[in-house]
Design a protein that fits this description.
- By secondary structure, the protein is α+β, with helices and mostly antiparallel strands.
- The chain has two domains: about 260 residues, 3-Layer(aba) Sandwich (D-Maltodextrin-Binding Protein, domain 2); about 230 residues, Dipeptide-binding Protein, Domain 3 (Dipeptide-binding Protein, domain 3, Roll), CATH 3.10.105.
- Helix content is about 30%, strand content about 20%.
- Strands 1, 8, 9, 10, 11, 12, 13, 14, 15, 16 and 19 form an eleven-stranded mixed beta sheet that branches. A four-stranded antiparallel beta sheet has the order 4-5-7-6, covered by helices on one side. A two-stranded antiparallel ribbon has the order 2-3.
- Strand 4 and strand 5 form a beta hairpin.
- The termini are far apart.
Length: about 550
């Protein structure tokens, strides 16, 4: 048996120390390497030690040029970095001045809008803001021919600086919803020193306006916003925004939020991911923020095709729609049933379809069908078309088919049919489809934008239907001389209460004539970590970054 001496010789001690130092250096290197792989605060991490907020999204901006941006991804950045003449009070559809100091003064003929402007404002590049700069920005929006240019181009005759801080806009025809167009983020003021007027003269990778934030970086997978230290108003509650873009990959966004890699997640999750996150919020793992959206989903009925040319058939279909079933079974409770084409976010909303038909009035549906000469032996056959890429609409169509067949014993037989999206929307105006399941994203937040684009008709008759105009382009081919007059009246009416009464009448006629059947409106969701506060979803879906902060 050999016993090792407890006393080490000097060279043995040196060997032990050398091994210890080597092991220490290796561990230290591994720690440094691991830490170097973590997202850094300046690059878009969830580290809020300096009160920068990290936000995750799947939406990737195509452009940040206000004159060409027409998608939520870009408009949301413009909303936070740029400023328009008017905006909406947070969480509402109520318009208030922003770069304007007051609501416009409108001439008696409704054509001239005089707008006083804010003084002491500078662009991010130091250029002073004044009426000339605002006129330049609006003229550029119209003349450069970007995707949203029609919003102003169709209604504005001329824009003039009639004083250093006074803007005068002349319209081609009266349009009482015009201030809502001036609240569209794309009408933001841009620096005349950094942009040009001219067809196709766009700057997609820069954004120089007057807002609370300055664009610091715009990369393919991230955007950094720094605080504008020279902002004319109240400073943001945080010290900047790091936006991480998980382009089209909701799974990565979902996992990043669950693991705490980002502070706030918004747009867009799959329904099962939303349910999972809502469940986590109920267990105090994080917070859920929801809000009523302004996107409406509806069924278009083609009045030029049999049997939908019969009023009783359209009314029977309206009577038997089970919106609650669709919301719970298909949409997982992540929407809100709606009974008008105008969303509930507007004070003019009236649930006229509920008043006229109730909820799932089977007896009334059978009575109406009998009046039109239809029964289980002589059923109503209606093809319901939807984009083949929309799984949700496919399930909705199948749900409607099964429910109506069960409740009416086959007196109405829906036939779900799908086609590629481009073909569907290219053929809708040609009258090919009897019925179409689709949705509507508003161009601007005014009730007019949910009425005129559906019911207006520039050429047609009661007998022939709509031959040219909005109703023809939507595939309903609906024509009503009374509706056309009411649309024109509300567009010229400046008194809110009188205008509201007109919208009430329009919605009642819509429910009576049934060229469309409103089904649901979107419900928007955002999620934030428990140490974050100030997250709000606007009805416009724009997301105000400047009120978000750590607790």
């Amino acid at each position: 048996m050999i016993i090792t001496n407890r006393l080490l010789l000097p060279w043995q001690k040196l060997s032990k120390i050398s091994k210890f130092l080597s092991l220490f250096v290796l561990c230290f290197a591994l720690v440094v390497a691991c830490n170097s792989n973590q997202p850094q605060t300046s690059e878009g991490s969830n580290n809020t030690d300096n009160n920068r907020i990290s936000v995750g999204t799947t939406l990737k901006p195509r452009t940040l040029d206000p004159a060409d941006s027409y998608e939520l991804a870009g408009l949301n950045i413009i909303y936070n970095v740029g400023e328009s003449l008017y905006t909406y009070k947070l969480g509402t559809t109520e318009i208030e001045p922003l770069l304007a100091t007051e609501m416009p003064q409108v001439s008696e003929d409704g054509l001239t809008y005089t707008i006083p402007l804010r003084q002491g404002v500078t662009f991010h590049d130091g250029t002073p803001f004044n009426a000339e700069a605002m006129a330049f920005s609006l003229q550029r929006f119209i003349e450069n021919g970007g995707k949203p240019s029609f919003l102003l181009g169709d209604v504005v005759d001329k824009v003039e600086a009639t004083g250093e801080y006074e803007l005068t806009i002349t319209l081609k025809q009266p349009f009482s919803a015009f201030p809502a167009l001036l609240a569209f983020p794309g009408t933001a003021a841009v620096s005349p020193q950094a942009y040009k007027i001219g067809a196709g003269e766009f700057s997609p990778n820069q954004l120089i306006s007057t807002g609370k934030y300055k664009l610091a970086q715009f990369n393919s997978d991230s955007i950094s916003l720094d605080v504008n230290e020279n902002y004319w108003g109240e400073q943001p509650a945080n010290e900047g925004i790091n936006l991480q873009i998980y382009a089209g990959n909701s799974a990565n966004l979902f996992n990043s939020f669950r693991t705490g890699a980002i502070d706030v997640a918004y747009q867009s999750f799959a329904p099962n991911q939303i349910n999972n996150l809502i469940k986590g919020a109920s267990q105090d793992k994080w917070q859920v923020i929801d809000g009523s959206g302004t996107v409406v989903d509806f069924l278009v009925l083609n009045l030029n095709q049999e049997p939908l040319n019969k009023l009783e058939v359209r009314q029977a279909i309206a009577s038997v729609i089970d919106r609650a079933l669709i919301n719970q079974r298909v949409l997982k409770g992540q929407a809100e049933p709606i009974y008008s084409l105008i969303p509930t976010a507007f004070d003019v909303y009236e649930p006229e379809f509920q008043k006229a038909y109730g909820d799932v009035n089977v007896a009334k549906a059978k009575e109406l069908l009998a009046q039109a000469g239809y029964s289980a032996e002589n059923p109503v056959l209606v093809e319901i078309w939807y984009p083949s890429g929309s799984i949700t609409r496919g399930i909705v169509a199948e749900t409607l088919k099964a429910f109506v067949e069960r409740e009416l014993g086959g007196a109405i037989q829906f036939v779900p049919s799908s086609v590629e999206s481009a073909s569907l929307f290219g053929n809708v105006s040609k009258g090919i489809y009897p019925a179409v399941l689709t949705d509507w994203y508003p161009d601007f937040l005014d009730a007019d934008n949910y009425i005129q684009p559906f019911l207006g008709c520039s050429k047609g008759s009661e007998a022939q239907g709509c031959e040219e105009g909005a109703a023809q382009s939507r595939g309903s081919f609906y024509y009503s001389d009374r509706i056309n007059k009411l649309i024109n009246q509300q567009r010229q009416e400046t008194d809110p209460e009188t205008r509201k009464a007109i919208f009430t009448e329009i919605q009642a006629i819509l429910a009576e004539d049934v060229p469309y059947i409103p089904l649901w409106q979107t419900k928007d969701y955002a999620f934030s970590q428990n140490n974050i506060e100030g997250v709000i979803i606007n009805p416009s879906q724009n997301f105000p970054f400047w009120i978000i902060q750590t607790k």
